[in-house]
Amino acid sequence: MEKHSQIEIKVSGKIGNVDINPDNFDIKEIISILNNVDDLLYSGDKKNRPLISYDIKEGSVRNIFKTGIQYIVSFNAILGLISQTNTIDYLDLATAKAIESLQDLAKKKDYTFDITTSLEGSNNIRIDKFSDFKRTEAIWAEAEFYFYGKITNAGGKDKANIHLLTDEYGTVRIQTPISFLEQQEENILYKSLGIRAKGNQHSENGEIDFTNLEFIELIDYNPIFDENYLKKLRDKAKQSWLSNINPDEWLRQIRGSYES
Fold it and tell me: Which domain of life is it from (predicted)?
């Protein structure tokens, strides 16, 4: 049976002159914390993430989240990195945005968030109106991307999106003009296609911000292996620059360069 451990987000503050407690802490604030914890613990594809159980306790408002201990250990390391560097620039995007969201709530409501784990000697951080956990915007730059996969959803009442299931990134959601979808004569659902999109990318580690991708164009894409096409490319190469190369001599030269 998998071992479990927990993280605690303790919220302190007042509503008027009354200290907050589980009885007067609004459900909207609880939902905000719940959503942020999901990103704090699991920043990638959440389709197969394990169960997170929740409890709320007295002591201002103590939000307790229990899940697999390996995830708590990883989160404890994140807390240590934040406390040592006093920055969130080194975190992956989803985790950094979750911290930013708590920071915004702390300044808006004058709340204090004390975050720790149940591990012995746990790291911890405090987020309040005096802290300033925000990403350095200068390290994010606009870029263009090409995504390939199967379209699993397309549309929306007010803001349309295309959902593209990719091998590399899981499901990618791309904001798409409704006018483009209206002009499609054929149904694109469940077809393998490519999409050119623009968005933000971390200038140091190359991480992509998947929350604000914008559609540029649709690309025909056939992932089926075409042996005849590949054979034609090989034959064409042999007839050009490869025709003048002696394979044995080329291999001896490569081996010689590595030995030297």
Answer: Bacteria
